[in-house]
# Entry
Amino acid sequence: MQNLPDAGQGTLGKPDPWAKFRGLTWWQLLLSIVPIILLPFGGAIGGAIGAAGLFANLSLARKQLATPLKLLAMVSVVLASYLGFFVVAGLLHNLFAG
# Structure
């Protein structure tokens, strides 16, 4: 039997930065990446909220849940990320503009 390297390690023993994305279906990848789109629009705040959504969805994608439940949970994380960003951005705008 062939000796395969660990999925979390690269060819030179360095950690593989893409290991968390390997083995996911296309819709799991899409829903995992969508929250990080907040980064160019929201800067550090959008990036922080988007990264939290990305890692939450990656965690959900690896859980043993029924597909409809997993889909609903991941879509909810995406919506919560965007809603949370707009609430924080609105509060900061009112704080500094008013």
Remarks:
- Helices lie at 26-33, 38-62, 67-97.
- Residues 26-97 form one domain.
- Residues 66 and 86 are 30 Å apart (CA to CA).
- The chain has a mean pLDDT of 89.
